[in-house]
Fold each of these.
Amino acid sequence: MKETTDIDILVSEVGPRDGLQSVKATLPTELKLEWISALAGAGLREIEVGSFVSAKLLPQMADAAEVVAHALTLPGLFVTALVPNLRGAEAAFSAGIHKITLPISVSEQHSLSNIRKTHAQLLEEVQAIVALRNERFPQVQIEAGLSTAFGCTLQGVVSDDETMAFAVKMAELGVDEVGLSDTVGYANPTQVRRLFTRLFRELGPLAGSAHFHNTRGQGLANVVAALEAGVKTFDGSQGGLGGCPYAPGASGNIVTEDLVYLLESMGLRTGVDIDRLVAAREVLRRGLPAEPLYGFIPDAGVGKNFTYAREAV
Amino acid sequence: MKETTDIDILVSEVGPRDGLQSVKATLPTELKLEWISALAGAGLREIEVGSFVSAKLLPQMADAAEVVAHALTLPGLFVTALVPNLRGAEAAFSAGIHKITLPISVSEQHSLSNIRKTHAQLLEEVQAIVALRNERFPQVQIEAGLSTAFGCTLQGVVSDDETMAFAVKMAELGVDEVGLSDTVGYANPTQVRRLFTRLFRELGPLAGSAHFHNTRGQGLANVVAALEAGVKTFDGSQGGLGGCPYAPGASGNIVTEDLVYLLESMGLRTGVDIDRLVAAREVLRRGLPAEPLYGFIPDAGVGKNFTYAREAV
């Protein structure tokens, strides 16, 4: 998705995956499709539409193939999905996905509790997935999303060296992109700037996206630091959907609406229309009436001094 | 307050002034004193304890002199107050204040609606206040806080040149420090970096603090940019107290608790103990039970990877 030249930053919407897998209620498939259409209609170029996991584990994601099929009909949309293992990869590839993201926990404790795999088992799985892609689905991109790259609720500190060792390993295994995820909201701007700078230095064009959570309110502050390090792709979730295991009132992922406002007001083109993006929340309100939606821009609106980056002189 | 060497950044708490003047309920004087003591006890070195304005206009601030008298008994605390005119300045000086902050609206429309003064009248008032200080209270510091420095709900865009012209004018009139305030939550990090860089270049040691609101969720993102421009003093408000005329769930000022966490996790010493700071909220809950308190850190806690800057290797 990096070939576009009419935007400066790619905002990758992960609400249909990261958001919906974290909420208790299930958004009916029909509304999921309507929501994704509305998000794409607002100008989002890339949406992580679901997760190819066991329907027993995550019943909200049981309709992943159907959702991908719909998303593929939306003009210009780059369709991605999360895939934790070879079986999921095969299903996602067969569904016609453009890109898969592999969750790779830098913290082995997190890996064991999240996808029940040791690091050795995880690396084998990545190898098998890349081999499958290379052999039968060469057009599909593979991104490794390094979870707990900035710290882990189980392990505590995760060192830069640990994260970078995994990043390099992933590049060696043949993935196309390596992103860094602050899975638990532990990152700070100093660390973000330092680690992404190193990622770009060591991985060059394979250095990928930033995925921040807002558990401690530091999400957009970390975006500023990542921008300085050269990051061009940011994950966001509409309404900060996903909640947070810790904090009432604290969103999970950074809120796409606030992220787009930040970027555009900084003079960085995202291609997203804020009014249409905010309007897309209506589908969520209808489908998940009990779920709180976060974000400042939907309530406060843009400032009277606001200009889209494309219109700025 | 810039002579200290055991901290890197001065967090200036404005809750007792900016916060309390915005809430409808009045915090009884006794609890105000208890709160200020708790804030100082948590390690905050500077607190804006009130506003010397007409008690008719702001009954919550009628006890300003009594509050200053109490704050002056707290060891090591630098006591400041907001002062909108000469009469307020005389009262604040007589109360023994260490520093006054003059709210100077760069937008004339805002000036007229906020303190009912044209720019010409405002400049005359500043001149008179500086003269009074020089003549009878030479030990008191005067800061000009440039309101609407980044934009105005009435005027819309406020240009860098407009803001800088006022900054230079204030320096010429003899104030000791010029800070920039994003009164209405319009600032973005690009603008913040650009404008503070210019402030430091043109004003040198007179360049002062950053005062950000979080109306659009961009407060801490703006702090990151201001840090890069060299800002060493940031205003914050406990619990984001002050609310916001626009957004339910949107705080007014940036939340001191989250600000301190940001700075410390970035390796910048503030001298503030986060646990004690969070504990100080209890006084507000008691005194203003109906007032929502914002902030992520009080609910989420610090991360397991967190270390105070002073303890970091």
Note: The beta strands of chain A are 10-13, 46-51, 78-82, 99-105, 141-147, 177-182, 207-212, 233-236.
Amino acid sequence: MEHEAPSPRTRIRRKPQRGHYDTATVAAIVDTALICQIAFNQGDSVHCLPTACWRVGNALYIHGANNSRLTRTLLDSDCSVCIAHVDGLVLARSAFHHSMNFRSVVIYGRFVAVDAPEEKKTALAAFVEHVSPGRSALVRPPNDAELAGTAVLRLRLDEAAAKIRNWGVEDDACDLDIPVWAGVVPLRCTAGEMEAEAACTDFPQPSLPDYLLTT
Amino acid sequence: MEHEAPSPRTRIRRKPQRGHYDTATVAAIVDTALICQIAFNQGDSVHCLPTACWRVGNALYIHGANNSRLTRTLLDSDCSVCIAHVDGLVLARSAFHHSMNFRSVVIYGRFVAVDAPEEKKTALAAFVEHVSPGRSALVRPPNDAELAGTAVLRLRLDEAAAKIRNWGVEDDACDLDIPVWAGVVPLRCTAGEMEAEAACTDFPQPSLPDYLLTT
């Protein structure tokens, strides 16, 4: 580990050799995510909800309707945000040593509202760029009513921990002669054939980010 | 909606037309997941952690080291579990109407420990089958020490809500003449070329479940 955990609750206790706390590692995992899961408490219950996310600088951004439970509740209490990518199945010779390759980040903190109109516009344009680079200049930007109805929230990435497993099978020595295939099955999120609206088949197809490898 | 929400906290309030509460829909979404995210409270903080999961009957299963924080804490308090699949980018003519196609499930309840040895063995074999059908008969099964060191936890799917978006672009009528590609980019989790251990290249490759489409 190159860096120390930024807080006691981000310290990786289970398999600490998989932990990373540096900004670049955290940012790289966030940058390949379309969604995150957010844990928060509301109404005597803990909740875990998925929502789209993207990064600008040292912060994770989410958005939602201005009157939604999620965006209202998150401004009033701390939360925990998880992003997890499964990168492979690790198939061992023993059931016990089966594993998965993955990259995950857990972030702690409290979201703040992005209220300044220009900052909100910039953040929403960055979201469009995150899913299709170059697209924000091609589509109609949000109008005043759309901006007013949309909440944009920002969570600094200061209190975050990444966990990565990206290696092969770790079988016990006594199992190495078992005659079964062992190895890694890589997994990735892949874009399939684009489904254009009928009126759009002659327009150039959208660009896709590198993290969505095309088939 | 064919069914009612099983509890107030599972009722979908934001875009309720996307909500589903029937067992088959919930099970189908769980069955295409390798991991879930679990929200729980511990030590004055809410946490959101990813872990592998699978389904047997009407329950979601997870496992972990017997002495891990996650497995110990989950037996003592309610949690919320989220599974979310991103199935496509919905690229509209306006920034505002961009969306994603997805299938998600949120489950509420409390995990219970699977302690009976036979039930534990059966559950762990089902996990191996979930990642590679037919594989549990080929690999070395867990020995007594491995079983003793592994906690298996079960959460009934009774209090669960699914949310699905699986349709095309919904642009405003006034935007339909904007000359930009609009449509859906399908996304899926895809298995790449298998990376065999050096000693295993002559063994038959493992089978993969249908939800991991191969390239």
Note: Helices of chain B lie at 23-30, 69-74, 117-131, 144-149.
